[in-house]
């Protein structure tokens, strides 16, 4: 990389790789088209309340925590697993760092940084525990993380003494409201982290191993990939993302609590699946996750803006998921407009 | 193609099953091209051909497990563009699949009886009745089988017997047997052939698939030879000799293979195994593979040959014994450990154990060298791609792009990817389990040539296989396993298909 | 640990038997609680556990069916409360024994219909059962609140009240009160027997195992895969409806929010009982044991004097322990022996 | 991700570090203050955000919102999430802010979790009134039906009277994180310790998760492990129905006293046979209307002060809290027993 020219070429190459890892274009295009359709529909239906700067600012502010939790779940899915404990990890991270923040040390700038680091570290440790249960004891991911979700939630409850950890320093709580040119900083932070995740899954050995492990765990074992190490890294990364989400949540809520975000687990899975992440492993799309998170948030905000009750919003989200997946399955046949040249996937194994 | 004509013998008898101009493509690869075969009542019709010639695919199309790309299946005079399995069974088609297609969580009796009870439209699952059906079926085949053990816990041989019994439980008019003897001893093969004889007398049309020439001559009334998805010729066994049939199957005069006998004498063995054992599976396994030597390890399915290979490869490590590579003792506890010791393993089941089917070819190739091609935690993507591309070119993998998924490749090309990924790692020993199963003839020759070339460069190669011509053609020595022990060693002086066959199925 | 287990077949067999393991866990907990609180060991505890296990057990039976067939259903709780609530709304006057039967029949019928909706989504959109039922449960719950109602019905049909008030056994207690076992338990017993008979003694029941064991093999031997799937979803839906109406009868009120978020706990109990999350294995008896062990854990916390704030963490820990033990038990299943008794031919030694 | 081209590990660390530093230090930047002028009190939308939509309690409160709209001609509506989850409520609240209402009336599940959003609303000139959130700081006023301490004390004095001032009792709260429930429980406990030393609370308060099934199950376990228990004190409206069902089943109607928060329609059957002895509550309809009335006064630029009349029964002469000047409470406790339960239809 001494040669500048070569560096630039490599840059282009990595960009291309990251873009290609961001999703099979067909499904991403469909998702984008539908998302834009949602925006146009609600702009027409409720121009006064939907089509406002405030509303879009709200969208950008409300999306980060869901997007980050979904990214974490997507990573677990990439490795062929699932993480149901992300919300519990987020809350535990928020509580742990909140407890440091409310001490006298936390009031100082260094103390605050320490508190934040501690929160993320706690989250990573939680992830490592998940990974160890899954790869070491080979507990199915859905059960392991269900159990740890209870455990982390319970630890959070004990640490916080049952009450919300509040009176956090204003330096921390204002963070959620900072905007650059109308774009909330937490949204930019989310994009940055998404970029980092994209880098990890495309351009690092561990990222490639996570994908291969998720694609075929048996073949990964026969290829000399250490399932234990890779799984633990995956869940540690997922935990870390959940930890940042937890910090964003407590910054936005000005407090940390155990009962926050219970609706996010299923929402996170929905976002990941909607984005086109394969729940059976081996495929992830970072852009898709961000777009899907925004699309779902837009859908619910839009429906609220036209005065529909939140019950209908949940019907709409469920129907949206089924419809998008059905389009992905049948889209090639029904909507030739969206068809892209793709390698034919024979359903059956090659002839024997 | 000129040989495939309606010969006069077919004239008066109406075929039970006819495949008419069947073609089938998988991901752009032609598995079958315009194949027409007739199966007559009371006739054992052998489909002969090498691995990958399309025999199994043809049977799967007749049984409804696959849908043909073109052509139709005619059963008792009615033409069907495609069939569903249920429909085919209802029409009297019964198959013993190569992979057995058993239900691992049900016991043997139920595996045998449930399809029949389903076909009969029964609603109540009577244990008594299931046992009765199963006992009759195993009686008919002269098989001994523990009927109340879950099939997943049976040995490979017993699973094969169970699959045979299931097919015999049903009074079918057409029975296809796809490599039904791979796990059986001679005694079991004899009773299977007796059962086949009785069915023939009852007027059942039988399709018999095998790549073991002797079996073809033993049971067949008619032989159809397939090569690369096309019918090459058809006739009665008396028209053929071993040599002419073999030539028809491979398209070459001789299966003999350019092979150097130069074992790198005086240098430490590439692989030395001493007293290897694993509880209940195998024991006392000792042998060496010299540098530049190609050693075969043969035995029936379930003889322990795969277990020994997987112990050496670290997949399921051995409990006792020693393994050394290039003279250095290594403690192999995991695949990673084996890989870093210099042992590479190409597993038996390419599709589930070897490849990441939906992932790019490039990633499949480079999985073994990710760490080597990384700096500061980041992949040196360009260098890695170069290495993969070079290997792909060396092995002549036919693909437009390394970004395409492996699934888009034919069996032969996929196998090259699998071998290539280990060659990139530059191991001292390459252990291959069934290296040419499901590979077309051209690729088979290429793959064996690649192995030959690598052995000339000093790589020690251990081939686990029951493909007798392949073993004879490529190996310097062949070791034979039975019941978890090494029972014979055939060196180049007395290495032939007949000697191996005798040793493995004694 | 591995070598210890593999060298002692007896230990291996004992640990390998899931149900024995569960019984041991149950006995250990009961023993531990009884030492601290001798009053725990009594008829009233037994009745309490049976009563509180009834509804999760009925739900669990449906979950077991779906798991055996190789799927994961997360919509059963919403199906249950939807069916029960609708039944109460449609026939609020259902009185006496015929009324009770009517309420039950309507709930089961609605459950079957919703189960069929699940089947249509799974088979029609070719979705994994987990994703499909995630989406349908959002839709069912939204539809319940939006179109049927969300307020608690505290005046439920009198037939149901009457059914619950029939006692099988009534025993006076030391504190002057009585403890009783409601006749509702009979529903659980009858259903358990029926489903066990269905699974063991009918061809369709065997198909369920076949489909979950190896779908492709089952297809090849002529088992109707799609019909089996539809049947399983329909039955599971009906069972969920039954569980819902039993819950309403038991609690004397129809509260649409009763079950929110409890899906995974029921699945955990079923898996603890030995059903494989990958399909092909499971039994009603195991599910009963799994549910009871979880109820024992739950009811041990108060007598053990574990502070409320610690309870969630303790449950999480026990859950992790349970699933880990189960996984370990599954891993030590015996291997198929190959090694023949020493043959007459002498094995060749180091000949090279 | 173009920068990814030359991003070494060290660079990556640097970026992460910078990120942390930003997180830690950038908090100083201020939020842009809203500059839009306040709309007049009589115009614009009034939106009420509740904990959960569709349950009896908030349906009753909705009737209060409708009454307010009818009386004043103001466009007032109520929204709430499908499940009682703080993040759903906070998001709904934020999406309500984007509709730029004149008055936001909020009943938070977790007061701390809405503080930031409420600050944002106020910075846009929206008048914010809360309920069941006496510690709130980012509101123009918090309207309570009563003084929390005296509510807890009133439940306790009824319970103590029923128990003749002696014996064990257990307390239930919806969740240990629920501020008002904990206030009532603690006030009750403090009073008992001072005035009724013969009574004794077993353990910490039990959590019912606002779920009658949970309070039922736990009550059975408590009865079983504490055979001598004489009373129950329930804070969540779902506690009394659950506790009373367990008492009813055990046939202990006459031996055990049950008091707590409750809704008449949900507890009538238990009050009738004595398995519950008395419920306390405030009428959500009146509370809902009082919140909006307070909002109307504040939006017109006036201030609330002690003694203010919100023109709603029980809220005609509000008291200002000594601890939080934003908190105003009325005298709207309803005490319901067998004698008067038939007067209430909700």
From TrEMBL, chain C:
Its main location: membrane. It is found in: Cell membrane. Keywords: Cell inner membrane, Cell membrane, Membrane, Transmembrane, Transmembrane helix, Transport. The keyword Chloroplast does not apply. One of its GO terms (cellular component) is plasma membrane. The keyword Membrane applies. It is a multi-pass membrane protein. GO terms for molecular function: transmembrane transporter activity. It comes from the Bacteria. The chain crosses the membrane at residues 20-40, 46-69, 76-94, 100-123, 130-153, 181-199, 230-250, 256-277, 284-302. Signal peptide: none annotated. PANTHER family: ABC TRANSPORTER PERMEASE PROTEIN YPHD-RELATED, ABC TRANSPORTER PERMEASE PROTEIN YPHD-RELATED-RELATED. This is ABC transporter permease. It comes from Galbitalea soli. The lineage of its organism: Bacteria, Bacillati, Actinomycetota, Actinomycetes, Micrococcales.
